[in-house]
Design goal:
Number of domains: 3
Strand order of the largest sheet: 3-2-1-6-5-4
CATH topology of the largest domain: Beta-Lactamase
Protein name: Phosphodiesterase
Bound molecules: adenosine monophosphate, zinc ion
CATH architecture of the largest domain: 2-Layer Sandwich
InterPro entries: GAF, GAF-like_dom_sf, HD/PDEase_dom, PDEase, PDEase_catalytic_dom, PDEase_catalytic_dom_sf, PDEase_CS
Radius of gyration: 28 Å
Structural class: alpha+beta
Pfam family, one: PDEase_I
Mean pLDDT: 81
GO molecular function: 3',5'-cyclic-nucleotide phosphodiesterase activity; metal ion binding
Family: Belongs to the cyclic nucleotide phosphodiesterase family.
């Protein structure tokens, strides 16, 4: 180690928590002192939830790492935190958890991480660049500038001589130069001690068990990886790609510093499912069930609770639109309704549980083509279900098959008669997503003349309430914020085009709404505008009238409709100059010269404002 960096290498200084014995033994004593209730230094006070997540055998590696990263960031006010596993068999360090980097691995003699992994001592550098071991390669790759760096070995009590991992934090947010204090180092050591044993187990599962049991598939991936790594080391001694098993732990955007998410995030209309990793969503499935009270009230067994979301996600195919993301989006949107609309409190716990499970599974094993396509082709599914709600019957059947399987029987904790209600609810809710029932559903909503009327109808016929909920959730993508809505639009268009191409190939004429080109934005704008006018508005308008907490959905829908209209006129989502004739189309009645600087967003805001005024007036007149 160079002399210039020596003074910054605080674990070597006399005040260091590590002192002469190295980084570990003294803090370990401190921890024991804390446990014994002696004068403590703990600022880091692990919550019961945090400890539960660490110690539960059901906590996936990804969730485990996220939880630690969130906690480290919170306690230290760090800008970045990465977690590494040390693989001492292969002399490698694996970056398995990071806020903004894909997993990678590197030889363990590289960089500050390598130094910490091999020497087993903590390093606290005010400016990482001053240290000779600092490897600027990651900085170059990510474009993220490192200033202060605090890097700490993680050890298990089983062997305090050996580092099994490294926690590395970068750039303290509250310090202009980004450096971490001695107190930060102490806090991080405490945290590292608390996680030590669970870290050992998680690392073991991920590295040693997987590579040690010679599972042939995993081994093949690893072998490939070794080869790649060998080559990449020859070309440049940098990073290589880890095997699939670790790649699936891809970086997770954090919605908050704390993970798991709070109930408000999970129930929020602004939860952008498409911005999340699939694995992360899968892990949120039990959280929503927990917040909805299903785990306690319906006795969902722990093992099935974990296995079930995995099976459902695997059940979805990788279509552009009808995939696990859509399944989860509908599930989340049902939870949004359950938590914001009072009328749903009439449902029994079993009904609420059935509704959520139905939402999650409502398009499971969707082949990416429509009912008409399957019927036209006399597909096996169409034959099985006699052309009636072909896909929906199939989704319901797959969902119920999962419930019958002992490993994924989430309803097995219910009493026998409740299990019957549960199954019936699931089937009816999934069948209600068939667009063939759309019109009758809208008409029944329009037929409810007041909120009280709707509540009474729901009380009399709870299945109607649940069917509305899941159907509205299924058609909610365009009632979300524009940035999210347009991503879903792109996906459904892609799926339509794939079906149309198949049909053309077989000599059939695709349905009119599938005849467009992806790059024809005018046509796509028109299709969406019409879809909003003729399909979505007739549902969302009466529904929001009866349940005003859904007003934000209707506002989004109206705004998005205008933005699609802009797209239809201009062939893009930008409008550089507004022709007077277009002004009339977009903002009828707007006096010339009074329109403000027009952008798609200002136009949408004006339309939304007008709409709100109209609604207020119509409420007043009632
Ligand atoms: P589901 O197949 O259960 O998801 O039912 C919803 C149906 O609504 C889809 O099959 C599509 O046909 C239709 N749909 C949903 N979003 C759009 C959209 N943005 N544009 C056109 N059709 C849509
Ligand atoms: Zn759907």
């Amino acid at each position: 180690m160079g002399s210039g960096a020596g003074s910054l290498h605080r674990s070597d200084t006399k005040d260091s928590v590590g002192k002469d014995e190295g980084a570990w033994p003294r803090p370990f004593r401190d921890w024991l002192a804390w446990v014994k209730g002696e004068k403590g230094i703990m600022e880091f006070k692990p919550t019961v939830d945090f400890l539960k997540i660490l110690s539960s055998p059901n906590t996936s590696l990804q969730y485990y790492l996220q939880t630690i990263i969130a906690e480290v960031i919170r306690v230290l006010n760090a800008d970045r935190c990465s977690i590494f596993f040390v693989d001492d068999m292969r002399k490698e360090v694996w970056c398995v958890g990071s806020l903004d980097m894909e997993p990678f691995c590197q030889p363990w003699d590289k960089g500050i991480v390598g130094m910490v992994a091999t020497e087993g001592k903590m390093v606290n550098l005010a400016d990482a660049h001053d240290h000779p071991a600092f490897d600027g390669e990651i900085e170059k790759k990510t474009g993220y500038t490192v200033k202060g760096i605090l890097s700490l070995p993680v050890k298990s009590v089983l062997n305090l001589d050996k580092a099994i991992g490294v926690i590395q934090v970068l750039n303290k947010r509250s310090s202009p130069k980004g450096e971490f204090s001695e107190q930060d180092a102490v806090e991080l050591q405490k945290l590292a001690m608390v996680i030590g044993d669970s870290f050992y187990r998680q690392r073991y599962k991920a590295l040693e068990e997987v590579t040690g049991h010679f599972d042939s598939e995993v081994q093949a991936v690893l072998d490939q990886h070794r080869e790649r790594m060998y080559l990449s080391r020859q070309q440049s001694p940098a990073m290589s790609t880890p095997p699939e098993i670790l790649r699936s732990l891809s970086r997770q955007p954090f919605l908050r510093e704390h993970s798991p998410l709070q109930v408000e995030d999970l129930a929020s209309l602004n939860f952008d499912v498409l911005d999340q990793a699939e694995m992360f969503l899968q892990e949120l499935v039990p959280d929503i069930l927990r917040h909805a009270g299903c785990i306690d009230n319906c006795g969902i067994p722990e093992k099935q609770l974990m296995a079930y979301p995995e099976a459902v996600f695997r059940g979805y195919r990788k279509n552009p639109f009808h995939n696990a993301y859509h399944g989860f989006a509908v599930y989340q949107m049902c939870f949004h309704q359950l938590s914001t609309i009072d009328t749903f409190s009439q449902l029994t716990a079993t009904q609420g549980f059935g509704l959520l499970v139905a939402a999650l599974c409502h398009d499971i094993d969707h082949p990416g083509v429509t009912n008409s396509y399957l019927i036209r082709l006399q597909d096996d599914l169409a034959l099985r279900y006699n052309d009636n709600s072909v896909l929906e019957n199939h989704h319901a059947s797959v969902a119920c098959t999962l419930l019958r399987d002992e490993r994924t029987a989430v309803g097995s904790g219910l009493a026998k008669e409740e299990q019957v209600v549960f199954r019936k609810t699931i089937i009816k809710c999934i069948l209600a997503t068939d667009m063939a029932h759309h019109q009758s559903c809208c008409q029944r909503l329009i037929g409810c003349h007041s909120a009280q009327d709707f509540k009474a109808t729901a009380e009399e016929d709870p299945q109607f309430l649940m069917s509305v909920c899941v159907h509205a959730a299924d058609l909610s993508a365009q009632a979300l914020d524009w940035e999210v809505a347009k991503k879903w639009e792109e996906r459904i268009c892609q799926e339509f085009l794939e079906q149309a191409a198949k049909e053309v190939e077989m000599g059939f004429t695709p349905e009119p709404f599938m005849q467009f080109k992806m790059e024809d934005m005018k046509q796509r704008g028109k299709l969406q505008r019409d879809f909003v006018d003729f399909v979505l508005r007739p549902l969302w308008e009466p529904y929001a009238q009866l349940e005003p907490s859904l007003d934000p959905c209707l506002s989004n829908l109206i705004k998005n409709r205008t933005l699609y209209e802009v797209r239809r006129i201009y062939g893009s989502d930008q409008m550089d100059s507004m022709a007077e004739s277009d002004l009339d189309l977009l903002l009828p009645g707007m006096p010339r010269g009074e329109a403000p600087q027009l952008t798609p967003r200002t136009v949408a805001a004006i339309v939304e404002g007008r709409h709100a005024e109209e609604r207020a007036k119509s409420k007043e007149s009632k």
